[in-house]
Amino acid sequence: MNTKIAIGIDVGGTNTVFGFVDKEGNCIYESSIPTHSEQNADQLFERLFLNINNDFKKFSNDYKLAGIGIGAPNANYYKGTVELPPNLNWGMVNVIDLVKKYSSLPAAITNDANAAAIGEMIFGAAKGMKDFIVITLGTGLGSGIVVNGELVYGADGFAGEIGHTIVDMNGRECGCGRRGCLETYASASGIRRTVFELIGTTNIPSGLREISFGQLSAKDIADAATRGDQLALKAFDYTAKVLGLKLADAVAHLSPEAIILFGGLANAGDLIFLPTKQYMEEFMLNIFKNKVKLIPSALPGAHAAVLGASALIWNELNKLN
Amino acid sequence: MNTKIAIGIDVGGTNTVFGFVDKEGNCIYESSIPTHSEQNADQLFERLFLNINNDFKKFSNDYKLAGIGIGAPNANYYKGTVELPPNLNWGMVNVIDLVKKYSSLPAAITNDANAAAIGEMIFGAAKGMKDFIVITLGTGLGSGIVVNGELVYGADGFAGEIGHTIVDMNGRECGCGRRGCLETYASASGIRRTVFELIGTTNIPSGLREISFGQLSAKDIADAATRGDQLALKAFDYTAKVLGLKLADAVAHLSPEAIILFGGLANAGDLIFLPTKQYMEEFMLNIFKNKVKLIPSALPGAHAAVLGASALIWNELNKLN
Prior knowledge:
Nucleotidyltransferase, domain 5
């Protein structure tokens, strides 16, 4: 047999995950190495390809490598670069040129949210859809937009920054230097900020009052909400209200068939989906009401990042055929 | 000679303009008839084609008709329909089916802002651009979005409603039934509302205090601002701030090469362009700063609507070749 498989690579601040994925989205193998964010990109990719080449030996009788898809922060699909990623000591680097030192396979790179969007289109919840948006609710809020079956990169390759649309020009300080960005409200760190604002502004009793900001996780808030903690429930409601408002704005731009929520905070399930859907409908222009699905990712959680990254290159290879 | 020309039709609440436009965007002839908004669509198109057929006789030796492009409120490109237009007594009507009663030429329909966007792409300021946004600043605020060289219609054909993104969920009442939509601030009627709010909330002296709301036009405000009227200047500044904020949001979604301002309020020139550009840059995420052009329409004002409508069908015919 010579089944073709793609290498999917997801570069994170702590670990870099890689795996082998066939055309149907089966993840044959997955592993990871520490990213060592203090190292430069070349040092990571040298270590990475040592591991990839070694691990592939077990599969080389049955499989043939077809290409490499990479998800990385601040990646530019057009240029093949990663530009000043906030959590990596990379500066400006052309990753696609770098990869050529280690492999002659076709390679493509984009950011993790765009990779997730292509992953959903090829293997997940957006199969058969031509117009949809993926929102990744992690530490920040990322987004990948698909229009007419193509990922929207925009004029410069950086489109899809819905996390940095502005909810309130006088609102919360954002890591980007501005104020009131959506991701300061609707993300794992955003809901933690909301809990602490509510602790300050209300007298609602809550077990969360005994936890420091440094110790509090979005999972803690979800667990408290599930137990009926009123402050945690109010934090989810507020998060959903802000997210619903800005998703209604995104719908007004793009009229997608569906919006797919992906990542840590999306795992809170009904706690986030039900109120977000309600507020999104409330804030949506009449002509769009009850048309746009709000659905969870259908990429299996354990392999989602690698599936997304591999989908990027499968999508490129499909275009060639 | 048998030069091909397209019929461009722009249906407005008061008048319906039509004209003959060649492939290079030369408007050979233009005329108009009253729309009679109390009539149904069939009555309008019957009158319209009587005029078109009659007027075309003068040109039939030199020109051959190639197709019909129509711009109309609440038009759906996919379905060929116009759906419950606010200013016309049409209800739900399939205009493309209707046109077949009067002509066997290929025909297409979209709303006026989308027609303007295609007009700019084929004949105007967006020639050669693949990613841009057209904002029409008339009584309301319309928008047409182009991604990868294609107009964005979305899943249902109604994408591009940036005028109904929400600036402030507790803000001004909008004709759509919600509150705080962009077009209640950034449009000819929006700036009139701003003047009256400023008359109420400030003591700034102004000649505009002598004019009733019913009598005040956006042109009056521009003229006052040009004369140095401080209240009028403040109204332009506020309009620009709100518009700049939401254009920065649109850039975060789409990363366009340019945003083109079109229509009545855009004719105020530097009064609106300079502060809008300044606020847009201020509210924009770092990676987009100083990349996105803010430019005026390059469709000649007198024929812009007919050029946009004809561009729609020229674009369709170009796809076939």
